[in-house]
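Sample intake sheet
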Amino acid sequence: MESPFVYVVDDEPGIAMLCDRVLTRAGYRVATETNPRKAVDYFEDNPIDLLLVDIRMPDVDGFEVIQHVQRWQPDAAILIMTGHGTVDTAIRALRQGVDGLILKPFKQGAELVDAVQLAFADNQKKRDAARTQALRPLFAITESLLSERRQAPLLDLIIKAIGGQLSCSQAACYQKKNDVQGYTRLAARGASESKPLMELLARATTTDSPILINIAGPGDHALKALLADLELGSAILAPVRHPSLSTVFFAARGVSEPAFRESDLEMFQILARQAATALENSRLYAEQLEYVRQIEASQKALIQAEKMAAAGRLSASIAHEINNPLQAVQNCLHLAGRNDLPEEKRKEYFDLARTELERLMVTARRMLDFYRPNAVTQTKVNLVDMLEYVLSLMAKQMSEAKVNVIKDIRDDLPLITAVGSQIQQVFINLILNAADAMAPEGGDLRITARTWEDGVEFLFQDSGKGISSEEQANIFEPFFSTKDGGTGLGLTVSYNIITAHGGSLELLVDRAPGACFRILLPTGGTQ
Protein backbone atom coordinates (compact mmCIF):
# COMPACT_ATOMS: atom_id res chain seq x y z
CA MET A 1 0.00 0.00 0.00
CA GLU A 2 1.37 3.41 -0.97
CA SER A 3 2.41 5.70 1.91
CA PRO A 4 0.36 8.88 2.55
CA PHE A 5 1.22 11.97 0.51
CA VAL A 6 1.91 15.21 2.43
CA TYR A 7 1.96 18.54 0.61
CA VAL A 8 3.90 21.31 2.41
CA VAL A 9 3.15 24.98 1.70
CA ASP A 10 5.44 27.54 3.43
CA ASP A 11 6.97 30.71 2.03
CA GLU A 12 10.19 30.06 4.00
CA PRO A 13 12.36 27.61 1.95
CA GLY A 14 14.24 26.50 5.07
CA ILE A 15 11.07 25.41 6.84
CA ALA A 16 9.81 23.66 3.72
CA MET A 17 13.10 21.75 3.35
CA LEU A 18 13.06 20.81 7.05
CA CYS A 19 9.52 19.42 6.76
CA ASP A 20 10.49 17.49 3.64
CA ARG A 21 13.52 15.92 5.33
CA VAL A 22 11.77 15.01 8.60
CA LEU A 23 8.59 13.58 7.03
CA THR A 24 10.42 11.70 4.28
CA ARG A 25 12.57 10.05 6.95
CA ALA A 26 9.32 9.09 8.74
CA GLY A 27 8.11 7.24 5.62
CA TYR A 28 5.78 9.79 4.05
CA ARG A 29 5.78 10.93 0.43
CA VAL A 30 6.37 14.68 0.46
CA ALA A 31 6.17 17.61 -1.97
CA THR A 32 6.85 21.25 -1.04
CA GLU A 33 5.81 24.63 -2.42
CA THR A 34 6.91 28.12 -1.30
CA ASN A 35 4.50 29.99 -3.60
CA PRO A 36 0.92 29.67 -2.25
CA ARG A 37 -0.61 30.65 -5.61
CA LYS A 38 1.09 27.71 -7.31
CA ALA A 39 -0.09 25.49 -4.49
CA VAL A 40 -3.69 26.49 -5.20
CA ASP A 41 -3.26 25.45 -8.86
CA TYR A 42 -1.65 22.18 -7.76
CA PHE A 43 -4.69 21.03 -5.77
CA GLU A 44 -6.97 21.15 -8.80
CA ASP A 45 -5.26 18.28 -10.61
CA ASN A 46 -3.19 16.41 -7.99
CA PRO A 47 -4.68 14.45 -5.09
CA ILE A 48 -3.09 14.83 -1.66
CA ASP A 49 -3.64 13.11 1.66
CA LEU A 50 -2.57 15.93 4.03
CA LEU A 51 -1.91 19.65 3.63
CA LEU A 52 0.74 21.10 5.93
CA VAL A 53 0.42 24.87 5.51
CA ASP A 54 1.83 28.01 7.15
CA ILE A 55 -0.79 30.55 8.24
CA ARG A 56 1.08 33.80 7.59
CA MET A 57 2.30 34.11 4.01
CA PRO A 58 2.43 37.13 1.69
CA ASP A 59 -0.38 37.69 -0.89
CA VAL A 60 -2.28 34.48 0.02
CA ASP A 61 -2.54 33.40 3.66
CA GLY A 62 -2.84 29.85 4.86
CA PHE A 63 -6.60 30.00 5.48
CA GLU A 64 -7.24 30.92 1.85
CA VAL A 65 -5.12 27.95 0.74
CA ILE A 66 -7.19 25.75 3.07
CA GLN A 67 -10.44 26.99 1.47
CA HIS A 68 -9.20 25.90 -1.96
CA VAL A 69 -8.10 22.45 -0.84
CA GLN A 70 -11.39 21.91 0.99
CA ARG A 71 -13.28 22.83 -2.16
CA TRP A 72 -11.36 20.53 -4.47
CA GLN A 73 -10.29 17.77 -2.06
CA PRO A 74 -12.71 17.87 0.90
CA ASP A 75 -11.43 14.61 2.41
CA ALA A 76 -7.79 15.74 2.72
CA ALA A 77 -6.42 16.17 6.25
CA ILE A 78 -5.20 19.66 7.18
CA LEU A 79 -2.44 20.62 9.62
CA ILE A 80 -1.52 24.28 10.09
CA MET A 81 1.75 25.64 11.42
CA THR A 82 2.35 29.13 12.78
CA GLY A 83 4.92 31.07 14.74
CA HIS A 84 2.27 33.30 16.25
CA GLY A 85 -0.17 30.97 17.92
CA THR A 86 -3.13 32.82 19.40
CA VAL A 87 -6.56 31.88 20.68
CA ASP A 88 -8.16 33.62 17.69
CA THR A 89 -6.03 31.57 15.30
CA ALA A 90 -7.02 28.33 17.02
CA ILE A 91 -10.72 29.22 16.99
CA ARG A 92 -10.64 30.12 13.31
CA ALA A 93 -8.79 26.91 12.52
CA LEU A 94 -11.41 24.83 14.33
CA ARG A 95 -14.25 26.60 12.56
CA GLN A 96 -12.62 25.91 9.22
CA GLY A 97 -12.36 22.19 9.98
CA VAL A 98 -8.61 22.00 10.46
CA ASP A 99 -7.35 18.70 11.90
CA GLY A 100 -4.34 20.01 13.85
CA LEU A 101 -2.04 22.92 14.72
CA ILE A 102 1.72 23.01 15.40
CA LEU A 103 3.86 25.96 16.54
CA LYS A 104 7.11 27.01 14.87
CA PRO A 105 9.95 26.59 15.35
CA PHE A 106 9.83 22.83 15.92
CA LYS A 107 11.85 21.78 18.94
CA GLN A 108 12.64 18.49 17.24
CA GLY A 109 11.58 16.45 14.22
CA ALA A 110 9.58 14.02 16.30
CA GLU A 111 7.20 16.82 17.26
CA LEU A 112 6.31 17.41 13.59
CA VAL A 113 5.85 13.69 12.92
CA ASP A 114 3.58 13.34 15.95
CA ALA A 115 1.50 16.34 14.80
CA VAL A 116 1.09 14.84 11.31
CA GLN A 117 0.03 11.50 12.77
CA LEU A 118 -2.49 13.18 15.08
CA ALA A 119 -3.91 15.20 12.16
CA PHE A 120 -4.40 12.01 10.15
CA ALA A 121 -6.04 10.33 13.13
CA ASP A 122 -8.35 13.30 13.79
CA ASN A 123 -9.30 13.47 10.11
CA GLN A 124 -10.09 9.74 10.13
CA LYS A 125 -12.30 10.15 13.21
CA LYS A 126 -14.24 12.91 11.47
CA ARG A 127 -14.69 10.77 8.35
CA ASP A 128 -15.77 7.76 10.43
CA ALA A 129 -18.28 9.90 12.32
CA ALA A 130 -19.69 11.24 9.05
CA ARG A 131 -19.87 7.72 7.67
CA THR A 132 -21.69 6.43 10.76
CA GLN A 133 -24.13 9.32 10.65
CA ALA A 134 -24.84 8.61 6.98
CA LEU A 135 -25.17 4.84 7.42
CA ARG A 136 -27.51 4.89 10.42
CA PRO A 137 -30.65 5.97 8.51
CA LEU A 138 -29.58 3.70 5.65
CA PHE A 139 -30.63 0.64 7.65
CA ALA A 140 -34.25 1.81 7.83
CA ILE A 141 -34.19 2.67 4.13
CA THR A 142 -32.81 -0.77 3.26
CA GLU A 143 -35.62 -2.43 5.24
CA SER A 144 -38.26 -0.44 3.36
CA LEU A 145 -36.66 -1.23 -0.02
CA LEU A 146 -36.44 -4.97 0.62
CA SER A 147 -40.03 -5.14 1.90
CA GLU A 148 -41.50 -3.60 -1.28
CA ARG A 149 -42.29 -6.14 -4.02
CA ARG A 150 -43.99 -3.93 -6.64
CA GLN A 151 -41.53 -2.40 -9.08
CA ALA A 152 -43.13 1.03 -9.60
CA PRO A 153 -43.38 1.95 -5.87
CA LEU A 154 -39.94 0.42 -5.33
CA LEU A 155 -38.33 2.63 -7.98
CA ASP A 156 -40.00 5.66 -6.43
CA LEU A 157 -38.56 4.68 -3.03
CA ILE A 158 -35.08 4.23 -4.53
CA ILE A 159 -35.05 7.67 -6.19
CA LYS A 160 -36.31 9.33 -3.01
CA ALA A 161 -33.68 7.47 -0.95
CA ILE A 162 -30.84 8.59 -3.25
CA GLY A 163 -32.00 12.20 -3.22
CA GLY A 164 -32.55 12.21 0.53
CA GLN A 165 -29.40 10.42 1.63
CA LEU A 166 -27.03 12.27 -0.69
CA SER A 167 -28.85 15.63 -0.59
CA CYS A 168 -28.63 15.80 -4.37
CA SER A 169 -30.88 17.49 -6.91
CA GLN A 170 -30.62 14.71 -9.50
CA ALA A 171 -31.06 10.95 -9.10
CA ALA A 172 -31.73 8.20 -11.62
CA CYS A 173 -31.68 4.46 -12.17
CA TYR A 174 -30.73 2.89 -15.51
CA GLN A 175 -30.73 -0.73 -16.56
CA LYS A 176 -29.81 -2.84 -19.57
CA LYS A 177 -29.55 -6.49 -20.48
CA ASN A 178 -25.97 -7.61 -20.91
CA ASP A 179 -26.52 -8.62 -24.54
CA VAL A 180 -28.19 -5.31 -25.49
CA GLN A 181 -26.64 -1.95 -26.29
CA GLY A 182 -27.89 1.14 -24.51
CA TYR A 183 -29.54 1.74 -21.17
CA THR A 184 -33.21 2.09 -20.33
CA ARG A 185 -34.14 4.67 -17.74
CA LEU A 186 -36.29 3.03 -15.07
CA ALA A 187 -36.82 6.12 -12.91
CA ALA A 188 -35.31 9.58 -12.53
CA ARG A 189 -35.64 12.89 -10.74
CA GLY A 190 -34.07 15.94 -12.34
CA ALA A 191 -31.81 13.89 -14.63
CA SER A 192 -32.50 14.22 -18.36
CA GLU A 193 -31.32 11.73 -20.95
CA SER A 194 -28.54 13.26 -23.05
CA LYS A 195 -25.50 12.14 -24.98
CA PRO A 196 -22.99 13.14 -22.25
CA LEU A 197 -24.98 11.21 -19.65
CA MET A 198 -25.13 8.13 -21.89
CA GLU A 199 -21.36 8.36 -22.30
CA LEU A 200 -20.96 8.49 -18.53
CA LEU A 201 -23.13 5.38 -18.22
CA ALA A 202 -21.02 3.64 -20.86
CA ARG A 203 -17.87 4.48 -18.88
CA ALA A 204 -19.48 3.11 -15.73
CA THR A 205 -20.25 -0.16 -17.54
CA THR A 206 -16.55 -0.83 -18.08
CA THR A 207 -15.87 -1.06 -14.33
CA ASP A 208 -17.42 -2.77 -11.34
CA SER A 209 -16.38 0.10 -9.06
CA PRO A 210 -18.33 3.31 -8.47
CA ILE A 211 -17.14 6.50 -10.14
CA LEU A 212 -16.88 9.80 -8.28
CA ILE A 213 -16.50 12.91 -10.47
CA ASN A 214 -16.01 16.43 -9.10
CA ILE A 215 -15.64 19.14 -11.69
CA ALA A 216 -13.31 21.01 -9.31
CA GLY A 217 -10.34 18.99 -8.14
CA PRO A 218 -8.24 16.08 -9.39
CA GLY A 219 -9.73 13.42 -11.64
CA ASP A 220 -10.21 12.16 -15.19
CA HIS A 221 -10.33 15.19 -17.50
CA ALA A 222 -12.62 13.42 -19.99
CA LEU A 223 -15.15 12.64 -17.25
CA LYS A 224 -14.95 16.19 -15.94
CA ALA A 225 -15.61 17.48 -19.45
CA LEU A 226 -18.75 15.35 -19.71
CA LEU A 227 -19.85 16.68 -16.32
CA ALA A 228 -19.32 20.23 -17.56
CA ASP A 229 -21.49 19.49 -20.62
CA LEU A 230 -24.23 18.40 -18.22
CA GLU A 231 -23.76 21.63 -16.24
CA LEU A 232 -23.18 19.65 -13.05
CA GLY A 233 -20.70 20.17 -10.25
CA SER A 234 -20.27 16.56 -9.10
CA ALA A 235 -21.71 13.12 -9.78
CA ILE A 236 -21.50 9.51 -8.60
CA LEU A 237 -22.27 6.49 -10.77
CA ALA A 238 -22.57 3.11 -9.05
CA PRO A 239 -22.78 0.07 -11.38
CA VAL A 240 -24.20 -3.22 -10.09
CA ARG A 241 -23.97 -6.35 -12.23
CA HIS A 242 -26.22 -9.39 -12.25
CA PRO A 243 -25.84 -12.46 -14.49
CA SER A 244 -28.26 -11.09 -17.10
CA LEU A 245 -28.64 -7.41 -16.17
CA SER A 246 -26.50 -4.37 -15.48
CA THR A 247 -27.90 -1.55 -13.35
CA VAL A 248 -26.35 1.87 -12.88
CA PHE A 249 -27.49 4.27 -10.15
CA PHE A 250 -26.77 7.95 -10.73
CA ALA A 251 -26.62 10.87 -8.30
CA ALA A 252 -25.56 14.44 -9.14
CA ARG A 253 -25.27 17.88 -7.61
CA GLY A 254 -25.29 21.24 -9.34
CA VAL A 255 -22.32 23.56 -9.72
CA SER A 256 -23.46 25.67 -6.77
CA GLU A 257 -23.90 22.66 -4.46
CA PRO A 258 -21.13 21.13 -2.29
CA ALA A 259 -19.01 18.47 -4.00
CA PHE A 260 -19.47 14.81 -3.15
CA ARG A 261 -16.96 13.34 -0.69
CA GLU A 262 -15.50 9.87 -0.26
CA SER A 263 -18.03 9.17 2.52
CA ASP A 264 -20.84 9.95 0.04
CA LEU A 265 -19.29 7.52 -2.43
CA GLU A 266 -19.11 4.74 0.15
CA MET A 267 -22.67 5.31 1.33
CA PHE A 268 -23.99 5.49 -2.23
CA GLN A 269 -22.29 2.21 -3.13
CA ILE A 270 -24.01 0.46 -0.22
CA LEU A 271 -27.37 2.01 -1.12
CA ALA A 272 -26.93 1.01 -4.77
CA ARG A 273 -26.23 -2.61 -3.89
CA GLN A 274 -29.27 -2.81 -1.62
CA ALA A 275 -31.45 -1.10 -4.24
CA ALA A 276 -30.22 -3.51 -6.94
CA THR A 277 -30.99 -6.46 -4.69
CA ALA A 278 -34.48 -5.08 -4.03
CA LEU A 279 -35.05 -4.62 -7.79
CA GLU A 280 -33.90 -8.18 -8.48
CA ASN A 281 -36.19 -9.48 -5.73
CA SER A 282 -39.05 -7.51 -7.25
CA ARG A 283 -38.34 -8.96 -10.70
CA LEU A 284 -38.15 -12.52 -9.38
CA TYR A 285 -41.29 -11.98 -7.31
CA ALA A 286 -43.16 -10.73 -10.40
CA GLU A 287 -41.98 -13.77 -12.39
CA GLN A 288 -42.99 -16.12 -9.58
CA LEU A 289 -46.36 -14.41 -9.23
CA GLU A 290 -47.00 -14.76 -12.95
CA TYR A 291 -45.96 -18.41 -12.78
CA VAL A 292 -48.37 -19.01 -9.90
CA ARG A 293 -51.15 -17.31 -11.85
CA GLN A 294 -50.47 -19.54 -14.82
CA ILE A 295 -50.47 -22.62 -12.59
CA GLU A 296 -53.74 -21.53 -10.98
CA ALA A 297 -55.31 -20.89 -14.39
CA SER A 298 -54.10 -24.28 -15.64
CA GLN A 299 -55.39 -25.99 -12.52
CA LYS A 300 -58.80 -24.35 -12.87
CA ALA A 301 -58.95 -25.36 -16.52
CA LEU A 302 -57.88 -28.89 -15.58
CA ILE A 303 -60.53 -29.16 -12.88
CA GLN A 304 -63.21 -27.83 -15.19
CA ALA A 305 -62.19 -30.20 -18.02
CA GLU A 306 -62.33 -33.21 -15.73
CA LYS A 307 -65.60 -31.96 -14.26
CA MET A 308 -67.17 -31.91 -17.71
CA ALA A 309 -65.74 -35.36 -18.47
CA ALA A 310 -67.18 -36.71 -15.22
CA ALA A 311 -70.50 -35.06 -16.04
CA GLY A 312 -70.56 -36.90 -19.36
CA ARG A 313 -69.93 -40.20 -17.62
CA LEU A 314 -72.80 -39.38 -15.26
CA SER A 315 -75.29 -38.60 -18.00
CA ALA A 316 -77.14 -41.90 -17.63
CA SER A 317 -77.57 -41.43 -13.89
CA ILE A 318 -78.65 -37.83 -14.35
CA ALA A 319 -81.21 -38.77 -16.96
CA HIS A 320 -82.56 -41.46 -14.65
CA GLU A 321 -82.65 -39.07 -11.69
CA ILE A 322 -84.56 -36.45 -13.66
CA ASN A 323 -86.77 -38.75 -15.72
CA ASN A 324 -88.35 -40.54 -12.75
CA PRO A 325 -89.83 -37.44 -11.06
CA LEU A 326 -90.90 -36.06 -14.46
CA GLN A 327 -92.86 -39.23 -15.19
CA ALA A 328 -94.38 -39.16 -11.71
CA VAL A 329 -95.44 -35.52 -12.19
CA GLN A 330 -96.92 -36.34 -15.59
CA ASN A 331 -98.93 -39.27 -14.18
CA CYS A 332 -100.14 -37.25 -11.19
CA LEU A 333 -101.31 -34.37 -13.38
CA HIS A 334 -103.04 -36.78 -15.77
CA LEU A 335 -104.88 -38.49 -12.94
CA ALA A 336 -105.73 -35.20 -11.23
CA GLY A 337 -107.36 -34.00 -14.44
CA ARG A 338 -110.12 -36.66 -14.38
CA ASN A 339 -113.58 -35.14 -13.83
CA ASP A 340 -114.88 -38.02 -11.75
CA LEU A 341 -111.98 -37.88 -9.28
CA PRO A 342 -112.87 -37.01 -5.67
CA GLU A 343 -111.45 -33.73 -4.38
CA GLU A 344 -109.37 -35.44 -1.71
CA LYS A 345 -107.76 -37.75 -4.27
CA ARG A 346 -107.09 -34.83 -6.63
CA LYS A 347 -105.33 -32.95 -3.77
CA GLU A 348 -103.24 -36.08 -3.03
CA TYR A 349 -102.10 -36.25 -6.67
CA PHE A 350 -101.22 -32.53 -6.65
CA ASP A 351 -99.21 -32.98 -3.42
CA LEU A 352 -97.34 -35.90 -4.98
CA ALA A 353 -96.59 -33.82 -8.08
CA ARG A 354 -95.34 -30.93 -5.92
CA THR A 355 -93.08 -33.31 -3.97
CA GLU A 356 -91.59 -34.73 -7.16
CA LEU A 357 -91.08 -31.24 -8.58
CA GLU A 358 -89.22 -30.18 -5.44
CA ARG A 359 -87.07 -33.29 -5.71
CA LEU A 360 -86.39 -32.42 -9.34
CA MET A 361 -85.47 -28.82 -8.42
CA VAL A 362 -83.01 -29.98 -5.75
CA THR A 363 -81.35 -32.35 -8.21
CA ALA A 364 -81.11 -29.65 -10.86
CA ARG A 365 -79.71 -27.14 -8.36
CA ARG A 366 -77.01 -29.53 -7.17
CA MET A 367 -76.04 -30.44 -10.71
CA LEU A 368 -75.82 -26.75 -11.58
CA ASP A 369 -73.45 -26.32 -8.65
CA PHE A 370 -71.37 -29.14 -10.09
CA TYR A 371 -71.30 -27.70 -13.61
CA ARG A 372 -70.64 -24.12 -12.52
CA PRO A 373 -67.00 -22.98 -12.98
CA ASN A 374 -65.14 -23.28 -9.71
CA ALA A 375 -66.59 -21.17 -6.97
CA VAL A 376 -63.99 -21.11 -4.24
CA THR A 377 -66.19 -19.88 -1.39
CA GLN A 378 -65.80 -22.27 1.52
CA THR A 379 -68.71 -23.24 3.71
CA LYS A 380 -69.39 -25.79 6.44
CA VAL A 381 -69.99 -29.09 4.65
CA ASN A 382 -71.57 -32.32 5.90
CA LEU A 383 -69.55 -34.96 4.03
CA VAL A 384 -71.91 -37.78 5.01
CA ASP A 385 -74.90 -36.04 3.43
CA MET A 386 -72.81 -35.19 0.38
CA LEU A 387 -71.67 -38.80 -0.04
CA GLU A 388 -75.24 -40.07 0.35
CA TYR A 389 -76.40 -37.66 -2.33
CA VAL A 390 -73.63 -38.71 -4.74
CA LEU A 391 -74.44 -42.40 -4.18
CA SER A 392 -78.15 -41.80 -4.78
CA LEU A 393 -77.31 -39.88 -7.93
CA MET A 394 -75.17 -42.77 -9.17
CA ALA A 395 -77.36 -45.62 -7.88
CA LYS A 396 -78.67 -46.66 -11.30
CA GLN A 397 -75.21 -46.51 -12.84
CA MET A 398 -73.72 -48.58 -10.01
CA SER A 399 -76.51 -51.12 -10.37
CA GLU A 400 -75.93 -51.48 -14.09
CA ALA A 401 -72.19 -51.85 -13.44
CA LYS A 402 -72.94 -54.62 -10.89
CA VAL A 403 -71.23 -52.65 -8.13
CA ASN A 404 -72.34 -53.38 -4.58
CA VAL A 405 -71.66 -50.37 -2.35
CA ILE A 406 -70.85 -51.23 1.27
CA LYS A 407 -70.86 -48.27 3.67
CA ASP A 408 -69.12 -48.13 7.03
CA ILE A 409 -69.68 -44.50 8.03
CA ARG A 410 -69.63 -43.03 11.51
CA ASP A 411 -72.56 -40.79 12.40
CA ASP A 412 -70.49 -38.35 14.44
CA LEU A 413 -68.22 -37.03 11.67
CA PRO A 414 -67.53 -33.31 12.19
CA LEU A 415 -68.43 -30.70 9.61
CA ILE A 416 -65.51 -29.49 7.52
CA THR A 417 -64.84 -26.12 5.90
CA ALA A 418 -64.55 -26.72 2.16
CA VAL A 419 -65.77 -25.93 -1.34
CA GLY A 420 -68.60 -28.42 -1.49
CA SER A 421 -68.81 -28.83 -5.28
CA GLN A 422 -65.10 -29.66 -5.43
CA ILE A 423 -65.25 -32.35 -2.72
CA GLN A 424 -68.34 -33.74 -4.44
CA GLN A 425 -66.34 -33.99 -7.65
CA VAL A 426 -63.62 -35.98 -5.84
CA PHE A 427 -66.19 -38.45 -4.51
CA ILE A 428 -67.65 -38.93 -7.99
CA ASN A 429 -64.20 -39.44 -9.53
CA LEU A 430 -63.20 -42.11 -7.00
CA ILE A 431 -66.52 -43.96 -7.25
CA LEU A 432 -66.46 -43.99 -11.05
CA ASN A 433 -62.83 -45.12 -11.08
CA ALA A 434 -63.70 -47.98 -8.72
CA ALA A 435 -66.60 -49.04 -10.95
CA ASP A 436 -64.35 -48.95 -14.04
CA ALA A 437 -61.67 -50.98 -12.22
CA MET A 438 -64.18 -53.78 -11.50
CA ALA A 439 -65.82 -53.83 -14.96
CA PRO A 440 -67.32 -55.82 -16.52
CA GLU A 441 -67.87 -58.39 -13.77
CA GLY A 442 -68.57 -55.83 -11.05
CA GLY A 443 -67.74 -56.29 -7.38
CA ASP A 444 -67.77 -54.60 -4.00
CA LEU A 445 -66.94 -50.97 -3.26
CA ARG A 446 -66.39 -50.42 0.45
CA ILE A 447 -66.54 -46.80 1.64
CA THR A 448 -65.32 -46.17 5.17
CA ALA A 449 -65.47 -42.83 6.99
CA ARG A 450 -64.25 -41.91 10.47
CA THR A 451 -62.69 -39.10 12.47
CA TRP A 452 -58.92 -38.74 12.16
CA GLU A 453 -56.92 -36.47 14.50
CA ASP A 454 -58.17 -32.93 13.63
CA GLY A 455 -60.14 -33.98 10.57
CA VAL A 456 -61.87 -36.85 8.79
CA GLU A 457 -60.68 -39.91 6.87
CA PHE A 458 -62.43 -41.56 3.90
CA LEU A 459 -61.39 -44.90 2.40
CA PHE A 460 -62.60 -46.04 -1.04
CA GLN A 461 -61.64 -49.69 -1.60
CA ASP A 462 -62.74 -51.75 -4.59
CA SER A 463 -62.43 -55.51 -5.23
CA GLY A 464 -60.89 -55.13 -8.68
CA LYS A 465 -57.53 -56.33 -9.92
CA GLY A 466 -55.66 -53.45 -8.26
CA ILE A 467 -52.89 -51.21 -9.58
CA SER A 468 -49.51 -52.66 -10.55
CA SER A 469 -46.35 -51.47 -8.80
CA GLU A 470 -45.12 -49.94 -12.08
CA GLU A 471 -48.27 -47.84 -12.39
CA GLN A 472 -48.51 -46.77 -8.74
CA ALA A 473 -45.81 -44.09 -9.05
CA ASN A 474 -47.64 -42.35 -11.91
CA ILE A 475 -51.33 -42.57 -11.06
CA PHE A 476 -51.54 -38.92 -9.92
CA GLU A 477 -49.67 -37.62 -12.98
CA PRO A 478 -51.77 -35.71 -15.56
CA PHE A 479 -52.96 -37.72 -18.57
CA PHE A 480 -51.80 -41.04 -17.11
CA SER A 481 -54.62 -43.59 -17.32
CA THR A 482 -54.85 -47.35 -16.75
CA LYS A 483 -58.06 -47.77 -18.76
CA ASP A 484 -58.91 -47.44 -22.42
CA GLY A 485 -60.44 -44.10 -23.32
CA GLY A 486 -59.59 -42.52 -19.96
CA THR A 487 -58.64 -38.84 -19.79
CA GLY A 488 -55.95 -39.37 -17.18
CA LEU A 489 -57.12 -36.27 -15.34
CA GLY A 490 -59.51 -37.56 -12.69
CA LEU A 491 -56.98 -38.48 -10.00
CA THR A 492 -54.77 -35.47 -10.82
CA VAL A 493 -57.66 -33.07 -10.36
CA SER A 494 -58.83 -34.89 -7.22
CA TYR A 495 -55.32 -34.75 -5.76
CA ASN A 496 -55.07 -31.01 -6.44
CA ILE A 497 -58.47 -30.33 -4.89
CA ILE A 498 -57.72 -32.24 -1.69
CA THR A 499 -54.24 -30.70 -1.41
CA ALA A 500 -55.68 -27.20 -1.87
CA HIS A 501 -57.96 -27.91 1.10
CA GLY A 502 -54.94 -28.76 3.25
CA GLY A 503 -55.57 -32.50 3.08
CA SER A 504 -54.03 -35.47 1.30
CA LEU A 505 -55.10 -38.08 -1.24
CA GLU A 506 -53.03 -41.24 -1.48
CA LEU A 507 -53.10 -44.83 -2.67
CA LEU A 508 -52.69 -47.37 0.13
CA VAL A 509 -50.59 -50.08 -1.48
CA ASP A 510 -50.97 -52.65 1.30
CA ARG A 511 -54.78 -52.98 1.10
CA ALA A 512 -55.59 -55.96 -1.10
CA PRO A 513 -57.63 -56.98 -2.98
CA GLY A 514 -58.18 -54.14 -5.41
CA ALA A 515 -57.14 -50.53 -4.90
CA CYS A 516 -57.72 -48.43 -1.81
CA PHE A 517 -57.63 -44.63 -1.89
CA ARG A 518 -57.53 -42.62 1.31
CA ILE A 519 -58.67 -39.01 1.74
CA LEU A 520 -57.65 -37.00 4.80
CA LEU A 521 -59.32 -33.61 5.21
CA PRO A 522 -58.82 -31.13 8.06
CA THR A 523 -61.92 -29.59 9.60
CA GLY A 524 -60.64 -26.05 9.07
CA GLY A 525 -59.84 -26.03 5.34
CA THR A 526 -57.02 -23.90 3.89
CA GLN A 527 -57.93 -23.13 0.28
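Comment: The chain is about 50% helix and 20% strand. The radius of gyration is 43 Å.
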